[in-house]
Amino acid sequence: MNVYEKFKEINGQFITEPTLIASKLSNIKAFIFDWDGVFNSGDKQANGGSSFSEVDSMGTNLLRYSYFLKNNRLPICGIISGEKNESAFYFSSREGFDFSFFKIAHKHDALNFICKDKNIKPEEVAYFFDDVLDLSIAKMCGLKILIHRKSNPLFTDYCIKNNLVDYITGSESGRFAIREASELLIGLANNYDSVIVNRTEYTDSYETYIQGRKLIQTKFYTLKDNSIEECNVLF
Fold it and tell me: 71: domain CATH number?
């Protein structure tokens, strides 16, 4: 499979060469996502909520299973959002993510918290993002995926010029960009067919992965008195 050509066909932009992205991916231990503008278009409801797609959800699941096949363990996964969003809480819990952060003004504080808690380095984190408030994390992480939005060409150019992005999705925010990014990384991990076959046939390997995922109890964090603290949320 020529991954480069497949993703060029859908207007994905490789700012870093695919072989180098694959090399970076081999060192990754955590997949961290922004929420608004990444899993959705960024539109907000009156209560501050926003949605997600099952297409993107399957993408994150397949990506995590790809990692499991390569490393015989689950990757660390989390969402870091500047806002409080019940859909993000529900998604994180349902999918067995390790963390869901909300109302975090300076997002790099959440990244530092994760790295300390899980004993990993920022360069071992892949980050999926879309806008200005994410740059404090993007500049620290080892693998950076920018969700495309054609309305901000100057921001995109800024990210490219300042080495803040490795790949820009061809799909726009709210149009299954996370599925695209997930499939890209699975393709570069060179085990896409194995991921699909095992998932389709629900093999013992996939069952082991799912059971491990179910054991994860998502922890929710927010900023209280200038420090990040665990909290209970309702959703």
Answer: 3.40.50.1000
**Total number of residues shown for the chain:** 235
Domain count for the chain, please give it: 1
- Residue 223 and residue 10: Cα distance in Å, rounded? 39
- Which amino acid makes up residue 184? L
Task: Give the residue numbers spanning the domain of 210.
Answer: 3-231
Helix axes 192-201, 177-189, angle to 10 degrees: 110
CA distance 201 to 205: 10
Print pLDDT tens along the chain (235 aa).
689 999 999 999 999 999 999 999 999 999 999 999 999 877 766 565 678 999 999 999 999 999 999 999 999 999 999 888 889 999 999 999 999 999 998 999 999 999 999 999 999 999 999 999 999 999 999 999 999 999 999 999 999 999 999 999 999 998 999 999 999 999 999 999 999 999 999 999 999 999 999 999 999 999 888 899 999 987 7
Which CB contacts under 8 angstroms, 24+ apart, belong to 113-116? 113/221, 113/228, 114/30, 114/32, 114/76, 114/78
Alpha-carbon span 56 to 94, nearest angstrom: 14
Distance CA(55)–CA(39), nearest Å, equals 10
